[in-house]
Specification:
Elements (H helix, E strand, L loop, with lengths): L11 E6 L3 E6 L4 E5 L4 H4 L3 H4 L3 E3 L4 E4 L4 E4 H6 L7 H14 L1
Amino acid sequence: MTTLAELRVPAATRVTVSDDALVVELADGRSVSVPLSWYPRLANGTAEERNHWRFIGQGEGIHWPDLDEDISVENLIAGKRSGESQRSLDRWLEARRKHG
């Protein structure tokens, strides 16, 4: 049986973030769409912050510098949500309130 770890993960080629979804287009022609609620930092960011991203590596992941969020293509394909703890998210939200 082949596992995901043994499969070659295609690079991301385009990223679109709406108010309710993250859509990542892949080099092999597929698109992966997940609810924005899976990534609370993106969900709590402004449209401007969500649209300010860059690829990590050769499209292996996406980084949002204004939100301090990194998401790998492998985790998107595997259907993994953010692994951030509620405590960590609460600290981040509190820091945003103080600086915003």
